[in-house]
Structure formats: C-alpha cells, structure tokens
Amino acid sequence: MAEIRTGTCSWTDRTLLESKTFYPPGLKSAEGRLKFYAQHFNTVEVDSTFYALPARRNAELWAERTPPDFIFHIKAFGLLTQHSVEVARLPRLLREMLPPDKRELRLLKDPPAEIRDLAFQMFADALLPLYEKGKLGVVLFQFPPFFVPRPESLNYLEQCQKMLAHYPLAIEF
C-alpha cells in the first residue's frame, strides 16, 4: 500500500498559530514549534524560501530537529520562478552585483543572468543538508500566471532542472 504523508504549508502557518489550539501555550521558539510539529506530521512545505534565499545553517537545523523520516518540500525562491522579489531581501552579494540603477528599486524583476545563476547556486547549496540527510522531498516551482506553456517556458524549465540537477522538482503553473 502506498505511503500517505500529511503536513501543512509551514510549521509557522498563521492558521496554526492563530488557532491557539495546536501548539502548547508558551511554545514560541521556531525550534520548539518545529519539534512539536514533527511529532504530529511527517512532512511540511517550507514557503519562507519563496521570499528570501534560505541559509544553509537553517536547513542543517531543520534536519537536526526532525525525525529521520521527516520530509521537507521547499518552495523555490521567487527570483527563480520569475516573480519580482524585494531587493532588500537579496543576499548582499547579489545586491552588490546589481547594476546601480536596479539597487535602488524596491522590487527586482528580470535580473541579469549571472545574478539568477548565482541565486540558483546559492539556493542549491542551502538545500544540500536536507538532501544529504534524505529529508528533501521536492523543490516546488510555483510560477506566476504569465508563465504559460510555450517554447521559452519549456526552455526555462530545462534550465531549472539543470541548475538543480540533484533535486526532484515539482512544477505549478
């Protein structure tokens, strides 16, 4: 019989927190909440990675704080899914690579190829601890409505697969 995994889109999901019925009173730390969550569910989608590139150390901690069979599904960083991203949320290295006229923007869309490529590398590196521990499910590429089936889109999907070659991808249009 096929295995069924259950989870939510985040262990810090607003509905979980606001319900005041899931987490014990006083449990406020991210570490404590993840450990508690992992006692009740065996998978989670990490959506914070859509808004900012994750730190490798966070992935190490997520792996350490969960049981061996726990699986993380990671939402791809918005810059990798052709969404606009807040310039302030980019790592300093990427911000410094931006042309001067783009550094002052609030939102960045269509970054230079070398910035997107480096963002892919940084994203892949950050997920490595989960992959090495067997805790990485899929990397979810949630594309915007304008990303429709056409040759350019298919070429970009091939690029995503190439840049994250070790990781299973899930694509959402």
UniProtKB/TrEMBL annotation:
For this protein, the record's SUPFAM superfamilies field holds: TM1631-like
One Pfam family for this entry, by name? DUF72
Question: Which superkingdom is the protein from?
Answer: Bacteria
InterPro entries attached to this UniProt entry = DUF72, UPF0759_sf
Q: Sorted alphabetically, which Gene3D superfamilies does this protein's record hold?
A: Protein of unknown function UPF0759
Protein's name in the database:
DUF72 domain-containing protein
* Species in which this protein is naturally found: Candidatus Hakubella thermalkaliphila
